[in-house]
Automatic annotation (TrEMBL), chain A:
Keyword Transport among record annotations: yes
Keyword list, A-Z: Endoplasmic reticulum, ER-Golgi transport, Golgi apparatus, Transport
Protein's cellular compartments: Cytoplasm, Perinuclear region; Endoplasmic reticulum; Golgi apparatus, cis-Golgi network; Golgi apparatus
Keyword Endoplasmic reticulum (UniProt): yes
Family designation: Belongs to the TRAPP small subunits family. Sedlin subfamily.
Pfam families: Sedlin_N
InterPro entries, per the entry: Longin-like_dom_sf, Sedlin, TRAPPC, TRAPPC2L
Protein's organism: Chilo suppressalis (Asiatic rice borer moth)
PANTHER family for this protein: TRAFFICKING PROTEIN PARTICLE COMPLEX SUBUNIT 2
Subunit details: Part of the multisubunit transport protein particle (TRAPP) complex.
Record protein name field: Trafficking protein particle complex subunit
TrEMBL record, chain B:
Chain intervals with Low complexity compositional bias: 193-209, 393-425
Annotated spans, Disordered: 158-215, 362-442, 971-1025
Compositionally biased spans, kind Polar residues: 362-376, 977-1019
Protein name: Protein brunelleschi
Domain Trs120/TRAPPC9 first Ig-like, residue spans: 713-812
Domain Trs120/TRAPPC9 N-terminal: 103-355
Assigned protein family: Belongs to the NIBP family.
Domain Trs120/TRAPPC9 third Ig-like: 1080-1196
UniProtKB/TrEMBL annotation, chain C:
Signal sequence, renumbered to the chain: none
Protein family per UniProt: Belongs to the TRAPP small subunits family. BET3 subfamily.
Transmembrane domains' residue ranges: none
Protein name from the UniProt record: Trafficking protein particle complex subunit 6B
First-listed, main subcellular location of the protein, grouped into a coarse class: Golgi
InterPro entries reported in the protein's UniProt record: NO_sig/Golgi_transp_ligand-bd, TRAPP_component, TRAPPC6/Trs33
Naturally occurring in which organism (per UniProt): Chilo suppressalis
Superkingdom assignment: Eukaryota
Subcellular location: Golgi apparatus, cis-Golgi network
Record-linked Pfam families: TRAPP
Length: 165, 1350, 158
């Protein structure tokens, strides 16, 4: 049985002034190892992934401005940033919305079918996730910048993951 | 051995080739097991020299070590006159295994050895020499040359001899030291001397035999090293020279090797092998074309390495390229990788020269400046510094701005690069110049030297730029090549360390390029390489990773690695766990976790990843504890609880709290910053969540203690702090920045109320709670409380201000879970917002009192100090009873009471109140001031003031038989306006009296029963009928002050007095009767005893009567009639008596005035007192407020006319029966005195006879029954004041019977307003005296009665 | 369309309500529209997530502004901004010649003094949207002759 867990991390802004908090808006996962230290280790993964993610953004911007860009990224303006990095156990994908919300997706690098998950797969998943998030923040009970506690959202995300496995 | 090209083209992220470990063999191969993380790409070009201290520790070893390190680059002019610039890398120790890779990458060979040793005697010297030799043996197969610096006690130099032994070395050194010019010429001639083959063995290998010195301290015979002897604290001025000398010789060896290699026959080269490859090639025929090429490739690569090391970077590029080509052809991945790496290294060296660590530069400069004399020996190496100087310039912009695109260096490498370099070199000249400016004048010619020197300097970079810049890689290519190389390495398990190092080198270059993504990807790759490393090496690996990640701004990654390193430090399979290091690593990973050491900062901006922060903090706590620094552990645990509180579950709260308790048991946490050995300061962490404070509010003093403004009226006193009012105050206070509107008093207990909640599931003990204040001195009283879980409890903190002025209450301090915290309001965690501080004004101290009240007879004492506020005194009084209440005011403070003011307020109207309560202000003031602990006594008189006249009170009617009442008017000859008003029937009389001037009175008193209607009108309304008890509630308000603040403020305490007035007796009815003496009258009272006891009722000084409980009896009270003078005197407003008179008849107003006079007269002359026999309570009573009808008034007042009626010359008294016989002639004399002070005019005196049938029927038709002689009616024109008129007539009664004589006298002036016509009377009026002019009638009452007998 | 007019009506009612409130709070004559502005801000902030979902990452500020002028505006007002001008120092002027909230009741100068109320919400909308796109700005509107309206966006560079 594969353990594929997805993580979502938000970087949000206070409404008054744009202060980045870099604290998770929502963390969810599926998979059969849900014991805490694993969870923690995965959070480490996501956390450290943020560096690469931010750097990716920065470099994109600098590249768009700067002269040479034989960067490996396909489309700099794509919200989907692709694989941020991978460890021997996990792959970490990144996706940053126009509103600088960061979606980070962690999958186990080995899936039972041996073949790794395809990039497109991840891309669509993250796009869906983004859509869900866009709905979630329209929830009047959600204060921008707070953790998302809506059960509906949670359920939707879980479904999304399951369907994408 | 083929792998999918996909993995070659694999993306940035994973450089792991999918085909892993081709050619990999079982472990246990000779694997280079000591990674060197510190390696840079440019080290490929360095000569490796080991510097070791042996023997006794040198005290100035480090200093020497630094000096040696500075000599890391010398220029040598080679045989072809070309200046090589040679770089050196010094290491303190070097695992010999790494030497094995020397063939693979020559820069891994340890070429030189320098030992710094200390000896004190021969034995030690021998030992030192032995060690040195053994070191030489250890690295024997790579070592080219070595130096031994020996520091011994001897000052004289036995080693002069060995110095002198080798001529060229000696004079070389001498020359070097002597003149620079020769120095630069020197390498050349030395070159040709050296280039001759026979000189190799001499300088290259240590087998060169040095002649043994036969001095004292002779080195052992087997010691064959160029050794230099110094005394312990010799400045060793020639250190640099000697080192340079060593390097020089090393260079020549390398150079020779290079030449040798380059001259080799390409056919018959042996196969170079990486250590682990040995087995792979056994049995392979070297003759196969493939392997030939392999050999060639490898050799070429090796040559390239040497070339690079010997300073011919450009050539090395070339060679590397070729090698790569060849090796690629034969799929020799490992060496291909090496070649590529070499290519990158060479390119990097050219592109990023400042990578050659510029650190020694500053030191050198400083050294120069510090001691000019040093510049002499240094001057030799001055040139070495230039490159740094030069490269520093381009370096600075590159490193400084992260945004600057990483491709600047390649642009320098375009053919114009040489110019750019030249310019930079020129710049270097200039700034050399200014560095030199502070050197001594001896350097001038050196200056010139330098200029010459500089001129050919650019030759180094020029070559690559001109010759083969096609092989020179630009930034991107370097990264790419490195990536490829690493991928190739990754195919060989045993090359793990090479790969790792390659990654680091690549990363460092990427950092130089400011290409963080590349850097990160390289670093990321390091993680994948699984090596069998010692814990220490793993830690180093993570350290290096962390540091590099930091450089590219990947703080989180860095933090992550630091944490891993930290955990390694103490991992179970670490032989010697180092908690200290672990702790610091974790501590320094704070920024990466977006944590700050300052809890307030963390709380204010909740940034970062709570779950991870919590994890980290917990580990940090453990580390701190194991490190043996409990204070830190406590501090961090507190920090964790405080900052992460919102992110923790209830269970975690509980657990952490318990842990904290355990920790603080070892060392208490306090609100003081902790300073670490490293100088870092851990700011205090205060627990504001445990307990949670939901409300914090300074309280005004309790009302008796509360200071009042002296000016404000006492009425307001008690109401100032009604809750509502206070609420509004509170709200206002919140608006204006916590400035409280009430005052606190110096030296007086003040209170702050707070609501605390214990969020933990177990009982929490908070001890030593105090207030944090600033401003005036404040003495806080520590509180200790036990908080049950989850139930908000209100806690009051107390303290006493010790000064006058402004006091700010900033917060509170707690001591719970073994942690002392200062919880400042401004740092309170949001949900509940607090003001940053509360400001309260403190006024000078005021006295305090206790009041002791005792009521005289009952002696009931009640003490009211400040504690039991508003103590009430209950007093019961019978109406008319009076008692005394003494208040004993004791000054309980140590401030004298200098102001005391007692006021009473009650629910009575004020003048009544003044009757009930009486106290004298004078004697109060007399007792001031009251010194501390003294007391003053104030007496207050209480009188059961009441109105004893019962108006229709209990059973007003039935107390009197109707008969009595009915004939009252007849007996009391009530004034009859005119004759016909005296009507046969009483009832009708009432009517007539109605029609008379009494109308207004009547109407006013209409509610009264007919019998004593006179009393009815104007009964005092304000007082309740005496038949009921009354409750009087009164407050005695005592305002007092003293001390320095007495002019402004005072205290006030109130004393409640509940006075119950019981009914004692009441006067239900009253009437007046004329007494025997005309000057007197009887006031007849119906007195009812309302008490439950027998009452002894005194109505005159002499007379008294016993009245049973609830009984009533009638008592006559003799009174003097109200004298006229009094009357006239008293009513000043009605100037003229007659006006009074005439008014009195008709208009009620003046009548009342007269009536007031009379009632006042009566009131003051009637003194009633009662005594309850059973309980000796005695009291007074009065008829205050008694009302008198017109008739009564006439009786009460002395009439203006005095009658003197005489029959047969003998005066008759009232109620006297006269007898005579029919036919007898009686002479009736009537004398009238006028007591008025003015004459009466038109006075009509009339005498009328009538018969009274005693059935209410009078007959006036007596014509045949009597005969009168003389006028029975005369009119006096005027009767002057106090004069007498006399009229006499005679009468003869013809028939016997009962006769009566009605003597009356009426005045007819002035003409009055119309009197209501008496039409209703059926009786014709007999007398029409001056009709319509009757104003007032006086009668002689009672009428004279005469009984006639036969 | 019915829903459009519904939006307009709701908008105007909200404004009336806000005015009432400010009256009750005893604000002297000057009308307090901050609440309306804030409503706009919140709405803009939230809707932006949705609108930019399918949109490639913005190259720069100007790109963002263009987005505001086109898609953003269309989604809300069923039309595009007619004219965008900028001084490349963070000041942008968006001109809408037929601003929807004004077209309803006036063209010309009638009610001109009341115009500000009807642009407050939109100002907030823009500000909120930009805020969510990490552009801190101050948005003011000016109406010279209705129904055209200019929105001035001053980007706050920190």
């Amino acid at each position: 049985m594969t353990t594929r867990s997805w993580w979502r991390h938000g970087e949000s802004y206070r409404m008054s002034r744009l202060r980045t908090k870099n604290s998770p808006l929502y963390i969810g996962g599926i998979g059969n190892d849900t014991n805490t230290d694993n969870e923690l280790s995965r959070q480490w993964l996501v956390h450290t992934a943020l560096d690469a993610l931010e750097e990716r953004l920065a470099s994109n911007n600098s590249n768009t401005t700067g002269a040479n860009t034989n960067n490996t990224r396909t489309d700099l303006r794509d919200l989907y940033l692709g694989l941020l990095y991978s460890t021997d156990t996990h792959k970490i994908y990144g996706y940053v919305t126009n509103t600088r919300i960061k979606l980070v997706l962690v999958t186990s690098s080995t899936s039972p079918s041996g073949s790794n998950i395809r990039d497109a797969e991840v891309r669509t998943a993250l796009r869906r996730l983004h859509a869900l998030y866009a709905d979630a923040i329209c929830n009047p009970f959600h204060l921008p910048g707070d953790q998302i506690t809506s059960l509906k959202f949670d359920k939707q995300v879980k479904n999304l993951m399951l369907n994408n496995v | 051995m083929s792998f999918t090209p996909r993995s070659l083209a694999t993306n940035v992220i994973s450089m792991r080739s999918s085909v892993s470990y081709i050619l990999s063999h079982a472990p246990g191969e000779s694997v280079m097991s000591h990674p060197d993380y510190g390696q840079h790409a440019q080290h490929h070009a360095c000569l490796l020299v080991l510097v070791k201290g042996i023997g006794g520790m040198l005290k100035n070893f480090n200093k020497l070590w630094e000096r040696i390190q500075k000599v890391n680059n010398i220029k040598v002019t080679d045989s072809s006159g070309q200046v090589r610039d040679i770089w050196v890398r010094y290491v303190r120790d070097y695992p010999v295994e790494n030497n094995d890779w020397g063939d693979f990458q020559t820069h891994r060979r340890l070429l030189g050895l320098i030992t710094l040793s200390k000896f004190t005697n021969q034995i030690e010297l021998n030992e030192v020499c032995r060690v040195h030799e053994s070191l030489k043996v250890k690295y024997t197969n790579t070592l080219y040359d070595s130096r031994a610096f020996m520091f011994g006690p001897i000052s004289k130099k036995p080693e002069q001899e060995p110095e002198t032994y080798s001529i060229f070395e000696d004079d070389k050194t001498s020359k070097e030291s002597s003149s620079l010019g020769e120095k630069f010429s020197l390498p050349s001639d030395q070159a040709d001397s050296l280039s001759s083959a026979e000189s190799y063995p001499h300088s290259s290998s240590s087998t060169t035999s040095l002649p043994i010195q036969e001095e004292n301290y002779t080195t052992p015979s087997n010691f064959k090293t160029h050794a230099m002897f110094y005394s312990e604290n010799d400045p060793v001025t020639d250190l640099e020279q000697n080192v340079a000398d060593l390097i020089n010789s090393l260079f020549w060896v390398v150079e020779s090797k290079r030449l040798e290699r380059s001259r080799e026959k390409i056919e018959k080269v042996s196969l170079l092998l990486a250590p682990f490859e040995k087995k792979d090639f056994v049995g392979l025929d070297m003759e196969s074309r493939n392997n030939k090429k392999r050999c060639m490739g490898r050799v070429t690569k090796n040559l390239a390495d040497l070339t690079l090391q010997s300073g011919l970077i450009a050539d090395s590029l070339n060679l590397y390229h070729n090698a790569a080509e060849i090796l690629k052809a034969v799929n020799d991945w490992l060496w291909l990788a090496a070649a590529k790496e070499g290519l990158c290294a060479a390119s990097a060296i050219l592109l990023y020269p400042n990578l050659r660590n510029p650190t020694p530069l500053q030191r050198n400069a400083s050294l120069q400046e510090s001691s000019p004399n040093k510049t002499k020996p240094l001057s030799l190496f001055q040139p070495n510094i230039d490159p740094f100087k030069k490269y520093k310039l381009p370096s600075s912009p590159l490193r400084s701005s992260k945004t600057s695109s990483p491709v600047n260096p390649p642009s320098e490498l375009t053919p114009s690069s040489s110019e750019s370099l030249e310019t930079s070199s020129r710049q270097s000249e200039t700034d050399n110049a200014d560095t030199e400016s502070l050197a001594s004048s001896s350097d001038i010619e050196y200056q010139s030297q330098k200029s010459f020197y500089m001129s050919d300097h650019p030759s180094i970079p020029r070559q690559p730029s001109q010759i083969n810049n096609q092989y020179l890689l630009n930034g991107e290519e370097i990264a790419e090549k490195y990536r490829k190389a690493i991928i190739h390495y990754s195919k060989y398990q045993n090359a793990g360390i090479i790969e790792t190092e390659a990654c680091f080198k690549a990363a460092r270059i990427a950092v130089e390029q400011n290409n963080s993504l590349h850097a990160s990807s390289f670093l990321q790759n390091v993680i994948f390489i699984n090596l069998t490393l010692s814990e220490q090496e793993k830690i180093q690996r993570f350290d290096t990773l962390a540091e590099l990640y930091k450089e590219i701004g990947f703080l989180r990654k860095a933090a992550f690695c630091q944490r891993l390193a930290a955990t390694r430090q103490v991992s179970p399979n670490n032989p010697n766990p180092d908690w200290q290091r672990c702790y610091y690593l974790m501590l320094h990973s704070f920024p990466g976790h977006r944590l700050s050491l300052d809890p307030n900062y963390v709380i204010q901006h909740q940034v970062g990843w709570p779950a991870l922060q919590i994890q980290l903090l917990q580990e940090l706590v453990v580390a701190a504890r194991r490190m043996g620094h409990p204070a830190l552990a406590t501090r961090h645990m507190t920090f964790l609880l405080q900052t992460m509180w919102p992110h923790l579950s209830r269970q975690e709260h509980r657990d952490l709290a318990i842990q904290l308790q355990a920790l603080s048991a070892q060392c208490e946490g306090g609100p003081v910053p902790l300073v670490l050995e490293t100088g870092e300061v851990i700011p205090p962490a205060n627990l504001t969540h445990v307990p949670r404070c939901s409300a914090f509010l300074p309280r005004p003093p309790p009302s008796p203690r509360a200071p009042h403004m002296l000016k404000c009226k006492p009425q307001q006193g008690p109401f100032i702090f009604t809750p509502i009012h206070f609420g509004s105050l509170e709200r206002k206070a919140r608006k204006d920045e916590g400035k409280m509107e009430y005052l606190w008093v110096e030296d007086d207990i003040c209170e702050v109320q707070m609501k605390l909640t214990n969020p933990l599931p177990f009982e929490l003990k908070v001890s030593n709670m105090r207030l944090l204040t600033s401003g005036v001195v404040f003495e806080s009283i520590p509180e200790t409380i036990i908080l049950p879980p989850d139930s908000p409890t209100t806690v009051n903190l107390h303290g006493t201000p010790k000064e006058v002025g402004e006091l700010q209450v900033l917060g509170y301090s707690t001591h719970t879970l073994g942690v002392k915290s200062n919880c400042r309001l401004k740092n309170m965690p949001t949900p509940n917002k607090f003001l940053p501080s509360y400001t309260i004004e403190v006024i000078p101290s005021l006295p305090t009192i206790t009041i002791e009240t005792s009521v005289a007879p009952s002696g009931s004492v009640s003490l009211s100090s400040l504690e039991n506020v508003g103590s009430t005194t209950n007093i019961t009084l019978y109406n008319g009873e009076s008692t005394e209440c003494t208040m004993r005011i004791t000054n309980t403070s140590n401030v004298p009471i200098e102001y005391l003011d007692i006021a009473i307020q009650s629910n009575m109207d004020s003048q009544l109140q003044s009757k009930v309560f009486q106290l004298s202000n004078e004697d109060i003031q007399a007792q001031l001031p009251i010194p501390p602990n003294e007391s003053a006594t104030v007496t207050m008189k209480l009188y059961g003031e009441a109105d004893f006249l019962d108006l229709g009170g209990v059973g007003g009617e039935n107390l009197f038989p109707n008969s009595l009442t009915s004939n009252y008017p007849s007996r009391v000859g009530s004034p009859v306006p005119n004759v016909q008003s005296s009507l046969p029937t009483q009832s009708s009389n009432a009517q007539t009296s109605l029609s008379s001037g009494l109308i207004p009175n009547r109407t006013s008193g209409s509610f009264r029963s007919s019998n004593s209607h006179t009393t009815s009108w104007s009964a005092p309304i304000s007082v309740m009928p005496p038949s009921r008890g009354r409750q009087v509630e009164a407050q005695v308000i005592i305002r007092y002050s003293g001390g320095s603040g007495k002019e402004v403020h005072c205290r006030q305490s109130t004393l409640q007095i509940n006075l119950e007035l019981l009914p004692s007796m009441s006067i239900t009815h009253w009437d007046v009767l004329p007494a025997e003496i005309p000057s007197q009258l009887y006031l007849v009272l119906d007195v009812t005893n309302l008490t439950s006891e027998e009452m002894d009722f005194h109505y005159t000084p002499s007379k008294h009567i016993l009245i049973e409980s609830k009984e009533s009896c009638r008592v006559p009270v003799p009174l003097d009639r109200c004298p006229f003078n009094l009357t006239s005197r008293t009513n000043e407003e009605s100037n003229s008596e007659d006006m009074l008179e005439c008014k009195s008849t008709v208009t009620g107003s003046s009548v009342t005035s007269v009536e007031e006079l009379c009632s006042a007269h009566v009131t003051e002359h009637v003194s009633l007192s009662w005594q309850l026999l059973h309980s000796e309570t005695r009291g007074k009573a009065s008829v205050k407020g008694i009302t008198l009808s017109q008739a009564m008034i006439d009786i009460v007042r002395m009439s203006p006319l005095n009658w003197e009626v005489s029959v047969n010359k003998q005066c008759i008294k009232p109620q006297e029966e006269l007898n005579c016989t029919a036919g007898e002639c009686l002479s009736l004399g009537v004398g009238v005195w006028n007591h008025l002070r003015r004459p009466l005019r038109q006075l009509c005196l009339s005498v009328q006879f009538y018969q009274d049938y005693n059935n209410g029927v009078h007959t006036y038709k007596l014509d045949n029954r009597l005969a009168t002689a003389g006028n029975n009616k005369i009119v006096l024109a005027s009767l002057p004041e106090s004069s007498k008129a006399y009229h006499e007539c005679t009468v003869v009664f013809l028939t016997p019977g009962e006769y009566k004589i009605d003597i009356q006298c009426s005045t007819t002036e002035p003409v009055l307003e119309d009197i209501p016509v008496i039409g209703d009377t059926d009786h014709p009026s007999i007398i029409q005296p001056c009709p319509g002019e009757v104003s007032h009638v006086w009668r002689f009452i009672p009428p004279v009665a005469i009984s006639v007998t036969d | 369309m019915a829903d459009d007019i519904l939006f307009d009506l709701l908008h105007s009612e909200i404004i009336n309500y806000a005015l009432e409130q400010s009256k009750e709070n005893g604000n002297k004559k000057e009308v307090d529209l901050s609440i309306v502005e804030y409503i706009g801000f919140a709405a803009g902030y939230k809707i932006m997530e949705r609108l930019t979902r399918e949109w490639p990452r913005f190259k720069d500020e100007l790109d963002t502004m263009k987005f505001i002028c086109t898609d953003f505006w269309t989604c809300i007002y069923k039309k595009q901004i007619d004219n965008l001008r900028t001084n490349h120092q963070g000041v942008y002027v968006l001109q809408d010649n037929g601003f929807r909230f004004l077209t309803n009741f006036s063209n010309g100068h009638q009610y001109l003094e009341f115009a500000p109320r009807f642009v407050a919400y939109t100002c907030g909308l823009i500000r909120g949207g930009l805020a969510n796109l990490c552009i801190n700005s101050v948005v003011t509107a000016e109406v010279q002759s209705m129904p055209s309206c200019k929105f001035h966006i001053h980007v706050q560079r920190t």
